[in-house]
Amino acid sequence: MSRRLEPGDHIYCKRKGGLYDHHGIYVGDYMVIHLQGKAKKSGPLPPCQICGNKRVINGEIAKVCIDCFLEGETLEIYDYGVPVLTFTIRRSGTCSRRHSKPPYEVIQTAIDFLQGKRSARYDMLINNCEDFAIFCKTGSKGSAQVSGVLVATSVIAAASLICPATGLALAGNYVLSKFLRR
Ligand SMILES: [Zn+2]
């Protein structure tokens, strides 16, 4: 983690030993609002002494404590408004070029989903936990992964025009970050 956790932050952690990441919005008071995986929808969540009393579930949107969210994995913060080169080098699904809304708006959007004022599935066509968190942060879904590839490709292309060796190095970095660090 590169900085202190603040309410309104988009956080994520590994799942299934790094096979994929799970995302949510930290709303303060040690609690996280997230779009749960389908597997958890059917059964009740296991008892937790920290969030047991505060746990709220609306469909697939749930409010749980950080411990329940992390399931023993390391907490990471998803950064917004990062410079293009940082965005190119970092693994996709860990940061965005787009800017975050003010924290109180981010938290309010997450609460609206939790309270059923917004519907992730039908109103916003949000399909996964990352979409949900990005929507809360920016007000639109966007696809970080797709735009990441497009931005990276254009940066590499631009660098290649100026200096083929730089372009190659950037491409190498990008490929490494895409496939080895995942
Ligand atoms: Zn808990």
UniProtKB/TrEMBL annotation:
The chain crosses the membrane at residues 149-176. The keyword rRNA-binding does not apply. It holds the Pfam family LRAT. Residues 12-145 form the LRAT domain. PROSITE patterns: LRAT. Keywords: Membrane, Transmembrane, Transmembrane helix. PANTHER family: LRAT DOMAIN-CONTAINING PROTEIN, OS05G0310600 PROTEIN. This is LRAT domain-containing protein. The lineage of its organism: Eukaryota, Viridiplantae, Streptophyta, Embryophyta, Tracheophyta.
